[in-house]
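Bumping with the actual sequence this time:
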Amino acid sequence: MAKTLILYSTTDGQALRICERIQEQLEQQDNQIEMHEISEFNAEDLGNFDKVLIGASIRYGKHNKWVHKFIRENKARLEAMPTAFFTVNAVARKEEKNTPDTNPYIIKFLRKVDWAPTLKGVFSGRIIYPKYGPFDRHIIRFIMWMTKGPTDLSGTFEFTKWDKVEEFAEDFNKL
């Protein structure tokens, strides 16, 4: 039984929802899972795990600073075990930008932290206009308008392809 650590960084909850789905699937395969918000995890405990999965959303083109910090500070330990990283972003709703080789955010992030996880993934996120404050609501709407996405401020738009999430979990389980 593999002892697996799942760390997440989420802006509006979608990265957490994806991590929870992966956790459910891994637990069905007799994995022992611990899940933590990345900023609250004590990195000294990293050695207690056989493999690590990190999931992080972006907002306005950037991952949370805690994701950068954790990977930079623990890169050698991460490289010594099987790891997976996925990013969640609305740009991934487009077919031409929904893989680790075509998504600009994961490419830029992994280059910046100079890390090569064993498995990489990209998932499209979710837009929840009613949940956002006025600033975010209008900026996100403008971005969606520019990229030909949904702009109805009363709507919630789910882009995540859950079958792709489950396939990623299965690939991670095989590491």
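The tokens above came from a reply further down the thread. Residues 127-159 form one domain.
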